[in-house]
Amino acid sequence: MTTLMEVAQRAGVTPATVSNVLRQRGKVGAATRERVLEAVAALDYRPHLTARALAEGSTPTLALMVSSIANPFYPEFALAAERAARRSGRFLIVCNTNEDPVMLRAYLDQIAGTLSEGMLVMNAKVDFEVLRKTQARGTPVVLCLWERPETPPGIPCIAVDFAAAGALAAHHLLELGHRRIGAILAGGLDGVQAPRYEGFCATLKLENVAHPDSEVRFTTDSVQGGYQAAVQLLDEHPDLTAIFATNDLPALGAMHAAADRGLRIPEDISVIGITDIQLARESRPGLSTVAVPTEAAATLAVELLEALIDGKAGGNAPMQIAPVPVLVVRASTGPARRKKRRRQTAERSRGKR
Amino acid sequence: MTTLMEVAQRAGVTPATVSNVLRQRGKVGAATRERVLEAVAALDYRPHLTARALAEGSTPTLALMVSSIANPFYPEFALAAERAARRSGRFLIVCNTNEDPVMLRAYLDQIAGTLSEGMLVMNAKVDFEVLRKTQARGTPVVLCLWERPETPPGIPCIAVDFAAAGALAAHHLLELGHRRIGAILAGGLDGVQAPRYEGFCATLKLENVAHPDSEVRFTTDSVQGGYQAAVQLLDEHPDLTAIFATNDLPALGAMHAAADRGLRIPEDISVIGITDIQLARESRPGLSTVAVPTEAAATLAVELLEALIDGKAGGNAPMQIAPVPVLVVRASTGPARRKKRRRQTAERSRGKR
Question: Are A8 and A18 in contact, with CB atoms under 8 Å apart?
Fold first, then answer.
């Protein structure tokens, strides 16, 4: 992308002059003006809003609190939120709370209302009292990716129907003939990913497919966590034909665990996750997953926060619902093993005739 | 980790009371004091510096400018820098410049000296004039991961001998018998990754191994970029037995490209990268790479920045050199193809006797 600086260099003027020409302010001679506009045209420069804010010396900032910057989902969300914030000329700063409520509180106390006009908070281990205090001091807060649209949290938020995501994953595996499905839940039954597991379980129940407690493992939201959980599941239940994980990172770990014991994916075991992070697309085999509307949710979150800042959001604690999650089928899921073997046997006997 | 809040809840007091007891300040009754200390002991609570800063209402902050938050190396560096910053009770905020010099300048103008006492800058496309202006306004700046220790940039920095990293990668491949090695350079010959490629080329030259210009591809620092570059290299030079990439992301892309055309890694083609991001450890096969001292460099950067803030850094533009990069051999590199075939043939003929 062409920058103001490059235009200035080409035209042989200062960036301030370029800015003056573009905004029709200040005194700029006709010849200089022409040189600048020529450079703008030659370089196809499009002044963006942040350049304008920069020139005006005021740069309103939003802050995004993430619980773990090392989890690749958060940078992806941050990037989308930043894109949305820049549309209105705002900057985004990212604060990593390392899943520590004290850190979250400290960031909110220090940054809200001083550097940042508004706070986007990812809701892992959030203390609602702290958020309410921030609001009470006059700084709007938006909870991003609230996981239970059916029960609004009483704080402005963007909700994602994560139970539907779990249900979609379960449905996909059932359609492929899987009846013995292990589950990996990142966090616990009271954690932010629990609704995904609830949606998965409800779908299995509807279809009368058993899912005993012994076939779920609780772990951390990481590749390593998923790996260890899958090792246990595959050790104790070798008849499983599929593994559902509540997030892509543990799903990728489950794939590695299966590969390390020589199981073929998806011939011997299918694996599915939730989120559709970049890694899901780039792994081999590609990970089937249920895509969360990251881009749309980030945009909605920024728009809601900006509406709150401008006093234009309706209601006390508006909740907006992001588009529904969507199943993305890649190479990590296929027909259940038993069925496949039967078919192969049938083919072999046909071949003999 | 136990938090102040949890201690307070267990003791039935406010967090402020817990803080007062721990810091022996304020008036706290003996019975309350005992309850708090009991809770501290029971929960094994260790007050950290940030909690102390929080209690004192002053939270000094450092800012880290990264050029691409979506590149997983940066969050890893940010996490290490944050850990270092917290040791002295400071917070770290992360700003993503999206490789846009205008954004970097805007962040520096807005954040330096207001919210942040000092700035850590990752040096992709950095305009040194802008950094000098920030310094001139009284806010220390540290350039992280300066890639040419032999030519200090004139701005406080942490240098990493990236040419040595490239040399180590080349040496490893040469030792395995590779003589036909393709290269993928993320960025151009004038980019921040160029010294890695220079180190690689110098080592090949020393060993009289040819590396014509037709066997290097320039691409973006991404899995996708590496994929496309590797497809071209493998199409045009099917006799290559190894690929060196100047970073792990394009190296992972090269592995995918090889896998997608049915080449076995490392039997048919070896792949090596530089950095040792988490993905390198978690891919299958694991990626051989040259590990950059991320943790040490981040710690040095924060320490240098803090010394500058405290007026304790020696010299005008101190440069500290991080520990040397280290070769990490995983499953993606092995003996060169031709050698292997010869050996296999020999084994086969032995078998016939």
Answer: yes
Whether A113 and chain B come into contact, CB under 8 Å, resolves to no
Whether residue A91 and residue B106 make contact (CB cut-off 8 A), yes or no, is yes
Whether B54 contacts chain A with CB within 8 A: yes
Q: Note whether A79 contacts B: Cβ–Cβ < 8 A.
A: yes
Name the residue among B34, B214, B98 with its Cα closest to residue A75.
B98
Where helices occur in chain A by DSSP H, the ranges are 4-11, 15-22, 30-43, 49-56, 73-87, 101-111, 128-136, 162-175, 194-206, 223-236, 248-260, 278-282, 294-309, 337-352
Q: Are A93 and B95 an interchain contact pair (Cβ–Cβ within 8 Å)?
A: yes
As a whole number, mean pLDDT of residues B85-100 equals: 87
B43 touches chain A (CB under 8 A): no
Beta partners for residue B65, in sequence order: B95, B121
- Cα Rg of chain B, angstroms: 25
Cα A90 to Cα A139, A308, B106, B348: the distances in Å are 16, 15, 11, 68
Chain B residue closest in CA terms to A61: B110
Mean pLDDT, chain A, rounded, equals 87
Q: What pLDDT is stored for residue A337 in this prediction? A: 87
Closest listed residue to residue A265, CA positions, set A277, A252, A282 = A252
Distance CA A180, CA B141 (A): 57
What's the gap in Å between the CA of B352 and the closest CA on chain A?
31
Could you identify the residue written with the tokens 């559902």?
A244
Domains A4-56 and A162-292+327-343 share a fold: no
- Does B129 reach chain A within 8 Å, measured CB to CB? no
Identify the closest residue of chain B to A69 by CA–CA distance: B75
Q: Which residue among B51, B78, B253 places its CB closest to the CB of A102? A: B51
Torsion sign, CA atoms A202, A205, A209, A212: positive
Contact A70 B76 (CB under 8 A): yes
Superfamily of domain B61-160+294-322 in the CATH hierarchy: Response regulator (3.40.50.2300)
- Closest chain A residue to B223, measured at CA: A282
Nearest chain B CA: its distance from A180 CA (Å): 26
Query: Order of strands, edge to edge, in the sheet holding B61-66?
Result: A319-321, A157-159, A141-146, A116-122, A61-66, A91-96, B91-96, B61-66, B118-122, B141-146, B157-159, B319-321
Is A76 near chain B, with CB under 8 Å? yes
ipTM above 0.95, yes or no: no
Contact assignment for B50 to A76 by CB distance below 8 Å:
no
B162-292+327-343 CATH fold: Rossmann fold (3.40.50)
Sign of CA dihedral A6, A7, A9, A14: negative
Contact by Cβ (8 Å): B158, B305: no
Domain range summary for chain B, segments of one domain joined by +: 4-56, 61-160+294-322, 162-292+327-343
User: pLDDT digits over A236-291, tens only?
Assistant: 999 999 999 999 999 999 999 999 999 999 999 999 999 999 889 988 899 999 99
Q: What is the pLDDT of residues A64-117, one digit of tens each?
A: 999 888 889 999 999 999 999 988 878 899 999 888 888 888 888 777 776 688
Name the CATH topology of B4-56. Answer: 434 Repressor (Amino-terminal Domain) (1.10.260)
CB atoms B69 and A94 under 8 Å:
yes
Which chain B residues in 258-297 lie under 8 Å from chain A, judged by CB atoms? 259-260, 278-279, 282, 284
Query: Given an 8 Å threshold on Cβ–Cβ distance, is B279 in contact with A279?
Result: yes
Interhelix angle A49-56/A15-22, rounded to 10 degrees, is: 110
Whether residues A50 and B82 touch (CB distance < 8 A) is answered with: no
B91–A107 C-beta distance less than 8 A: yes
**CA pair distance B259, B201, nearest whole angstrom:** 26
